[in-house]
Design a protein that fits this description.
The chain has 13 helices and 7 strands. The protein is α/β, with parallel strands linked by helices.
Length: about 290
């Protein structure tokens, strides 16, 4: 089938290539790189009715402005797919706005990163049955076998992807802490070798572990050229906020998010408070800057 792809970054480019490889026709729009269209209006003209356009752009203002423009460019029965990491509440609102104009809106949580072209993209899709069913050939082409599901109504796709990313925070933090214990031990351990053997038969094996093994092989086991500064893109925060609203304890995901915050501090003011108090009540030595 024919699809419009908006956004040709690392994910959008890989998805476009995978779809074309599977026999689909993809028209593209990205103002920063060569595309088949120079505007959203031209992109719509390149697609046959009923149109389907996929936004693969950063969540936030750029997704909102693109969505609002698409509402004016597209026609009734066309479908807008948001494959970015939008907040599920925004997706529910956008579905209502699209419906008011006779358009369909589908939220697709996408996982796979830069490896998706080769391995396939895991897709968690939310939306009404009719537009989702219509686009199923696209979803199955993008996903590996067993890696796609229509998880629920509007917003459900991005809700599931939000929790997926919260879990990812916890897994990454657990690997980080465990390997730091190994790195700091009295033994001269080969961390690359250990990560390597854990990939086979171990209960902690995972794709993240495979990527860590690759990173050790490329960067060295001290990772000396990598700064320990870890960003977060929002989904961990949203997961924790929803957990609080649902009275669900998520201590591991919360701790992982706070660890990311701590990684960005050159000097912790809280640690300075602790050092000052230990000096005040116990006369413990304070290190000066």
């Amino acid at each position: 089938m024919k699809l419009g792809m908006i956004g040709l970054g690392r994910m959008g480019t890989g998805m476009t290539a995978r779809l074309e490889r599977e026999g689909h026709t993809v028209q593209t729009y990205d103002p920063n790189v060569p595309s088949t269209a120079d505007s959203l209006e031209e992109l719509a003209d390149q697609l046959g009715a009923p149109r389907a356009v996929w936004m693969m752009i950063p969540a936030g203002p750029i997704t909102e402005s693109t969505f609002q423009e698409l509402l004016t460019v597209l026609a009734p029965d066309d479908t807008i797919v948001d494959g970015g990491n939008s907040n599920f509440r925004d997706s529910k609102r956008r579905a209502e706005e699209a419906d008011a104009r006779g358009l369909h809106f589908v939220d697709a949580g996408v996982s796979g990163g830069i490896w998706g072209l080769r391995e396939g993209f895991c897709l968690m899709v939310g939306g009404d049955d009719e537009p989702v069913s219509r686009l199923e050939p696209v979803f199955t082409a993008l996903a590996p076998e067993g890696g796609y599901a229509h998880v629920g109504p509007s917003g459900a796709g991005h809700f599931v992807k939000m929790v997926h990313n919260g879990i990812e925070y916890g897994l990454m933090q657990a690997y980080g802490e465990g390997f730091e214990v190994l790195h700091s031990s009295e033994y001269d351990l080969d961390l690359e070798e250990i990560a390597g053997i854990w990939r086979y038969g171990s209960v902690v094996r995972s794709w993240l572990l495979e990527l860590l093994y690759d990173a050790f092989g490329r960067e060295g086991t001290d990772l000396e050229h990598i700064k320990g500064y870890v960003e977060d893109s929002g989904e961990g925060r949203w997961t924790i906020a929803e957990a609080i609203a649902e009275d669900v304890p998520v201590p591991v995901i919360s701790a992982a998010l706070y660890a990311r915050f701590a990684s960005r501090q050159q000097e912790s003011f809280a640690a300075k408070i602790g050092a000052a108090l230990r000096n005040e009540f116990g006369g413990h030595v304070v290190r000066s800057e």
